[in-house]
Design goal:
Layout: E1 4-7, E2 18-23, H1 35-38, H2 43-56, E3 60-65, H3 69-78, E4 85-89, H4 98-107, E5 111-114, E6 137-140, H5 144-156, H6 158-161
Parallel strand pairs: 2-3, 2-4, 4-5, 5-6
Antiparallel strand pairs: 1-6
Bound molecules: 1,3,4-trihydroxy-5-OXO-cyclohexanecarboxylic acid.
The site of 1,3,4-trihydroxy-5-OXO-cyclohexanecarboxylic acid (DQA) has 10 residues, from loops.
Length: 165
């Protein structure tokens, strides 16, 4: 797993202190799902670590997981006036969901795409993200660290973190 970060200079960001964290399909099975790829941490443990980190940074987070594309889109819509930043692991929706991409673009909130695994060193279909161009950055291969760096990036603003990769 070689960790990577890509910051998208085309998309501006601003300081975010209310962050929506979304986990996509199959991430509810973390801990038991392909642990050699995704690690042994359960979603509950991951969420606890994210919430603790956020609290220490003075960031308010709301965290959701859904196996359904439409539910993730609804969550983006529902939180569009609350959230100042979005950290999203779209799971496999990353690779084909134009609807999710459109929803991120529609809400107009700086978003960071995160992945536990390094999608760039896996199967060819995983190396394609239809989401990344509507995000300020894509962080992969760092497990929990991808989410924490995503929060940091939103907090600092893309400029300050452009050298993070
Ligand atoms: C994932 C990578 C995706 O390709 C996969 O479908 C997932 C998890 C990751 O976090 O590494 O469900 O987003």
């Amino acid at each position: 797993m070689s960790p990577q970060s890509t910051v998208n200079p085309a998309r501006p960001t601003r300081h975010a202190s209310r962050i929506l964290v979304l986990h996509g399909p199959n991430l509810n099975l973390l801990g038991e799902r392909e642990p050699q790829v995704y690690g042994r941490m359960t979603l509950e443990e991951l969420n606890r670590a994210i919430a603790e980190f956020a609290a220490n940074q003075g960031v308010e987070v709301r965290i959701f997981q859904s196996n359904h594309e439409g539910t993730l889109i609804d969550l983006l819509h529902e939180h569009r006036r609350w959230a100042e930043g979005i950290v999203i692991n779209p799971g496999a929706l990353t690779h084909y969901s134009y609807a999710l991409r459109d929803a991120i673009a529609a809400v107009g909130i700086p978003a960071v795409e995160v992945h536990l695994s390094d999608i760039h060193s896996r199967e060819p279909f995983r190396q394609v993200s239809v989401i990344k161009d509507v995000c300020i950055a894509q962080l992969v291969g760092k497990g929990l660290g991808s989410y924490l760096e995503g929060i940091e990036l939103l907090l600092k603003g893309a400029k300050g973190a452009a050298g993070a990769g």
